């Protein structure tokens, strides 16, 4: 809800923190309430007492405006102010700011950020000395107000508040251009500024000005030395950009030595709602102090450094994983997951991206790439040396068909791994994270597939690893950002590293999700097709003859079909697909061609009705018959045992 300047019962709420900001806030609120013929409520929040402070006294010169004073007791100043807003429903909220640099992931501070995201009225944030303004302010002293603008609704609010601050107020709308701007561009911006401020052009104390400066913030700071107060509209940047680089008004207020007022018009749109949802969803998490962030940085950088211990553990882990895959032993593979240190390097890439640290990014990337090559080499050697006595096991095949579920596991594992590294009391959870997201086993599978010249195994396992890699980097970077890590903007190329890294990670994550989803859709279609075929076989095979039963069946490999020359297209423009089946049945007698053809036609009709094949597609069927011989149960005669005479030798006299 924005200000209605024609409203006669305009209500302004002034939230006073202490004696140091009492006078500036009350004077500003009084000036606005007087200009709008409204009323003002002053509230201060005390933690231990609800008694009214001695300094909270409204001067007699302000009695021409209805003013109410309230004292509230609450542990949280922000929550108490929001409760008061629910009771009074003000159109404008005035609060103070000490002008200190934000810390621990906040833009202006814990209380002010809380109000920025929850207040449903226009907001004014004042940074000033306790002695501003002087007593002449109440007597309508001429005051010079500077209002920098680049357009937007918040600039409009800044102009209106500046003109109503005092009756003889002098307001200058300022626009800053780069120092190397061409004269034509300067004239164009002067015309734009005149058109943008046309509504206030008739005001005798309103004027426009365009200047050139190397930096917009510095240019405003220099210009503000000739004015009593600077009013800046809040930025329209996203909450993400504000938390990373800081807001433009915030930087103006920090560099401006005089009084600075930041105004924010209430916006109930989707963007503002999403910003509030983001703030509420992340600020309940603990923020790391500077010392804690330094400890985490040192730990990750030390773990991600490509040294001999790192490569030794990667090689051993890959060897263990390769043997476990060939032996089809999950226990051995889990042991390899616990030994491998590769996740530290990958999480280090996420931290380097968030901190825009090119050196850490280089170290972690080198460690990751060299570790990947070593793990693939160990898998290749194991597969090559044991190829004569080994074959694709279930554990190997399980790592060749990644799905969106694997992407979800990798994302949550990256979140858990980064959070556990940042929280010392959660370090015991790291082994579980290493088991949840397998990094070395897929790489060992890639090496085994290459040694067998089986590109399907190698490519599927590499896709699984890339899925884990991208998801862990993105999720880990998100956790570091939420817990208080920020890019060091002073470094050369820092913005490019941060922006490019975040954009690349999100794009790759979306691409991996799309690829895995496409693969999963194909797998689901294949499973549905196989269910239809299974139903037809179960129903039709017994009808092929007496005592005919289904034994097994399978779909032939398309590569094998191509090799045998069976996958020839009927129409070169729209080639038909061939679905070749191999069905094995048990039968006491031969099965004729006609019955086999009926079975094939039944399968084709069922798949056509289910829209699982095109009209021109073909079904191939190889029927393997296992001849059976059935013996009827009968009672067998019991063999009789004929006693054998035994000759006993006798002695001869």
Give the spatial strand order of the biggest sheet: 3-2-1-4-5-10-9-6-7-8
CATH class membership of the largest domain: Alpha Beta
Give me the CATH fold name of the largest domain: Rossmann fold
Structural class: alpha/beta
Major sheet, described briefly?
A: 10 strands, mixed
How many strand segments? 13
Question: Count of DSSP helices?
Answer: 22
How would you describe what is shown here?
- The chain is of the alpha/beta class and 653 residues long.
- It has three domains: 11-282, Rossmann fold (3-Layer(aba) Sandwich); 290-486; 527-568 and 576-627, K homology (KH) domain (GMP Synthetase, Chain A, domain 3, 2-Layer Sandwich).
- It has helices at 19-35, 77-88, 110-118, 153-165, 183-196, 216-224, 239-245, 248-255, 270-282, 290-304, 308-327, 330-339, 342-355, 358-385, 394-397, 404-422, 430-436, 440-451, 455-482, 494-540, 558-564, 593-609, and strands spanning 11-16, 39-46, 67-73, 92-96, 122-127, 144-148, 170-178, 206-213, 229-233, 259-264, 549-555, 578-587, 618-627.
- Helix 3 links the parallel strand 4 (92-96) and strand 5 (122-127).
- Helix 11 crosses helix 18 (440-451), helix 14 (358-385) packs across helix 18 (440-451) and helix 19 (455-482) crosses helix 20.
